[in-house]
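Run log, item B.
One chain of 465 residues. Sequence copied directly from the ordering sheet:
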Amino acid sequence: MLDRYFKLGEFGTNPRTEIIAGITTFVTMAYILFLNPIILAGTGMDQNAVFFATAVGAGIVSIMMGLFVNYPVALAPGMGLNAYFAVVASAQGGALTWQQALGAVFVAGLVFLLLTVTGFRQLLVKALPDSLKYAITVGIGLFIAFIGFKLGEVSTVTFLGGPSADAIKGGAGVVPLMFFEWNIGIANFMLSKAAALTMIGLIIAGILTTLRVRGALLIGIVLTTLIGIPMGVTNTAGLDNPSFLPDFGNLAIGALDLSQLASGVFWEIVIVFVFVCLFDSFGTLVGTANRAGLLNRPDGEKRLGRAMFVDGSGVSIGALLGVTPMTAYIESAAGIESGGRTGLTAVTAGVMFLLSVVLLAPFVSIIPSAATSPALIIVGVLMMSSVRHIEWDDFGIAMPAFLTIALMPFTYSIANGISIGIISYVLLNGIRNVFAKDAEKQPVHWLMWIIALMALARFIFLAGE
């Protein structure tokens, strides 16, 4: 039955290979189960509820990808988008409550599906120059790494007042004034056990990743948590529960709030979710499918369209369950390298995510931020690799890319980086195309002009508030 449904023979694989590939994919992705609850805890969300939604959401959407598309690609809450969610819904002055932010995620999912069905999604991907796509990835990587250092108490950030300080902390500010303090001195490590444990964990995760150990981030989280016990950073009180299961009484299923639909900030957040999902998921789906040799098949384009539909559905499904957008994971490449070629790989990974609700849930409450922070920093390192694809010798490309990358962490806002990057790209290359020789011109898609005007209108709107 498995062979007939997933066409295992046609793809030159077998159940054993596919199941092992699925388990491999799960192990490389499982770090998100422990990372996501800690990232979103700052919004006031219950960590057990986030773990449940992360595991169940990843399980459901990964199984959907396997059954409906027959792709060996698993999905889970995307890195970067969860960090952005944590900022805009921060309990310390975020632009929205976490319930309202979930509403924004849900609406973003509907918009994402509409763009996919109409084919506009593909047009947007074509319109944005490759240099800005890479810059967005790198900028989000730095943003994630910055949050990792902050959660691990290696750095602190102070907002220096001013009329827009509250808006900045909510991710909606334009020109932030921030003061960074790095706790990297020996004295600081002696005083902050969490910072010391973060650096120990970073070394462990770095070594494992360098050695290409599968599941390096998950293993790093576990080992760092264990080291944190004698240091007094890891709190083992959660294991005293006689049932050995956490309390799932505060689940956020259906808790999304759409009361801010008329708010400009709400739609700004929706647009950022759509924009980042758009390029992140498309690149991941194409990259993994190509590595598995699925795009050059006769039905390659049709199946990619179905995969994008499932990927888009994952955004709204995540919101309904009470978690940030689900998206295709590049870690699926680990399962593909292990021989995974069909949807049975994704289904296996999905089942493992569902089983983790019982098998891994008891450990969520004891894992400290210092144990997960190194994983965030390592993810930032991996996302930095895209910087090499940017043409730094062409200033019309280099400056917009730099502004996109730098302004995301420096203004504590993904939206600011994307907006300034697009505006500067259109402005510089639009002027160049008018005055430069034909050989020096850089094409600017007509849709980029519209997006740039929208980004400019955003800044004007924020300045008037």
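Observations after the first pass:
- The chain has 20 helices and four strands.
- Strands lie at 75-77, 155-159, 178-182, 326-328.
Flagged for discussion on Thursday.
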